[in-house]
Write a structure and sequence with these properties.
Length: 399
């Protein structure tokens, strides 16, 4: 059977990935919601596209025709890790602004560009001769060092990105009763996918350095993996455009209140009770707030609203999100997410035992109780009852 060789297909897929990255960058840069995060993601798409285009450039042997493009994509890997990390940081907190400390993350890229300037300033024939020497194994020390440092950078930033996202997930559970739109799960997926690409690239690098017969064509397979990542981001953008809308921007996570400065003349009441992250809430105040919270939850049933947040419930109780969070953590021992979903689960249990599950679908009962999705309902029900909803229904109807 004749056809296009495999590597030609890889080159084509890589080229299309580079083109798609540019289109995605333009679309993201034009978005107004959470503009900073979108622009960082757009910059990441441009960096991916330049890196992919460079691989196409070498795969097609265009060095002789266009020697001045040689080396343009070399510093790009030093942007991949920092931009994914910064994107996660800005997507998780819409109030965050780009600072001088954030700019430090781009310093390795700038240093590599500066180190590459002597190559960039070479004439066309000189660049071509330099490339030939590289292919023959005459590699300058600074290139050997930077080739390994890019893996250190990529690995470190991938780990940092995943840590940021896991911390964000814990934070939203303290502020939201339904976290489907604010947990940035797809971004965690992006971080894990990026880790896979770096692991693949590092594996090829180690194999090549150890003399296992891996040649430079291995870079094409890494580029193929990056292309798939770009395709996946584009697919998610089309299938779930809300992932680029950042609903966290509409419902920001409440920030902790600044510590109050006590007056020297003020009486020291409830000093025996440990403070909760610098809060001024005393023991008797906490007990009263807890009682009010339970009363509101049982009488007014605000948990039926799937969009219930810590801030809205605190407003209903005429208190602050921070004080309410303190009561939940120290008096009740639960996150806001688990506390509210506990009421929802108990409501579904009650209706199952009353026979409603025989007349309505389980998902309908879950939605009536305030759950926003089937997956969240199943997880919460299993966590609170140690049973699946189906198992609980079967046991509830048994004589």
């Amino acid at each position: 059977m004749t056809g296009v060789p495999l590597l030609d297909w890889i080159v084509l897929v890589t080229l299309l990935g580079a083109v798609q990255g540019i289109f995605l960058a333009g679309a993201l840069a034009s978005k107004r919601r959470n503009r900073l995060a979108n622009r960082v993601l757009a910059a990441m798409m441009v960096a991916f596209s330049i890196g992919l285009a460079t691989q196409v450039y070498h795969a097609l042997g265009l060095e002789r025709q266009y020697p001045h493009f040689f080396g343009v994509g070399y510093p790009m890997p030093f942007l991949f890790g920092p931009l994914v990390y910064l994107y996660a940081v800005f997507a998780a907190d819409r109030q965050r602004r780009f600072t001088q400390l954030d700019a430090v993350h781009l310093a390795p890229f700038v240093i590599v560009v500066a180190a590459s300037l002597p190559v960039y300033f070479l004439t066309g024939p000189e660049k071509l001769a330099f490339y030939v020497r590289l292919r023959e194994g005459s590699v300058p020390t600074w290139i050997v060092v930077t080739d390994w440092l890019k893996f250190v950078s990529g690995t470190a930033y991938t780990v940092a990105t995943i840590v940021v996202l896991l911390r964000h997930r814990r934070r939203v559970q303290d502020s939201y009763s339904s976290i489907e739109r604010v947990n940035l799960q797809w971004l965690l997926w992006l971080g894990i996918a990026a880790a896979g690409v770096w692991a693949l690239a590092l594996g090829f690098q180690v194999a090549q350095a150890s003399g296992m017969g891996v040649d430079v064509s291995a870079d094409r397979y890494v580029s193929l993996a990056v292309s798939v990542l770009v395709y996946a981001i584009g697919y998610r953008a089309l299938r779930q455009p809300e992932i680029f809308r950042y609903d966290t921007a509409e419902m920001p996570i409440p920030r902790q209140e600044p510590p109050a400065t006590p007056s020297p003349a003020a009486p020291h009441t409830d000093t025996e009770r440990p403070r909760y992250e610098r809060s001024g809430l005393g023991e008797r105040q906490a007990e009263r707030l807890k009682a009010s919270l339970i009363a509101v939850m049982e009488q007014e049933e605000p948990w039926r609203n799937s969009d219930l947040t810590l801030a809205t419930l605190a407003e209903r109780l005429a208190t602050t999100p921070h004080k309410l969070s303190e009561v939940l953590n120290t008096e009740i021992g639960q996150t806001f997410y688990d506390f509210v979903n506990g009421y929802r689960v108990r409501d579904v249990q009650r209706r199952i035992e009353a026979g409603d599950a025989g007349r309505q679908k389980m998902l309908a009962l879950a939605m009536d109780a305030g759950f926003a999705s089937k997956s969240t309902f199943n997880l919460a029900f299993k966590k609170h009852t140690s049973q699946t909803p189906s198992d609980y229904r079967v046991r509830a109807v048994l004589p």
